[in-house]
Structure to design on (128 residues):
């Protein structure tokens, strides 16, 4: 990964220099991973560009996807992907769920084990 620009959000500045950052699919994010950024759709022949979050990095708290939950976001068509939908957090840092198409790319800093080592991402999670 090459970072060529930064974000205005101060909480993101330090994390962008981490050697532990990884790009994973949304369905590979685990509880405790730090979600740093989403990615904009890539134009043909171009690399993906990150789309920084206004809230800054936030911890993943995956939950089951329920399109009828009433949060106001889960029912939106853009959260549905060809491989299903995953919810990366509910209610933090927002008052709504955070549903993603399962195949969307996410920039994360993986959670750490007790020895300070980044835990490798597991196989994709179950999607609905």
């Amino acid at each position: 990964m090459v970072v060529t620009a930064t974000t205005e959000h101060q909480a993101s500045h330090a994390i962008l220099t981490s050697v532990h950052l990884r790009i994973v699919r949304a369905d590979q994010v685990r509880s405790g991973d730090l979600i740093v950024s989403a990615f904009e759709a890539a134009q043909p022949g171009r690399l993906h560009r990150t789309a920084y979050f206004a809230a800054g990095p936030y911890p993943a708290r995956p939950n089951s996807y329920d399109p009828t939950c009433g949060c106001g976001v889960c029912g939106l068509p853009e959260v549905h992907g060809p491989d299903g939908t995953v919810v990366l957090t509910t209610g933090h840092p927002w008052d709504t769920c955070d549903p993603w198409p399962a195949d969307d790319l996410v920039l994360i800093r993986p959670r750490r084990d007790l020895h300070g080592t980044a835990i490798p991402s597991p196989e994709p999670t179950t999607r609905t």
Summary: The CA atoms of residues 50 and 87 lie 19 Å apart. The longest helix spans residues 10-15.
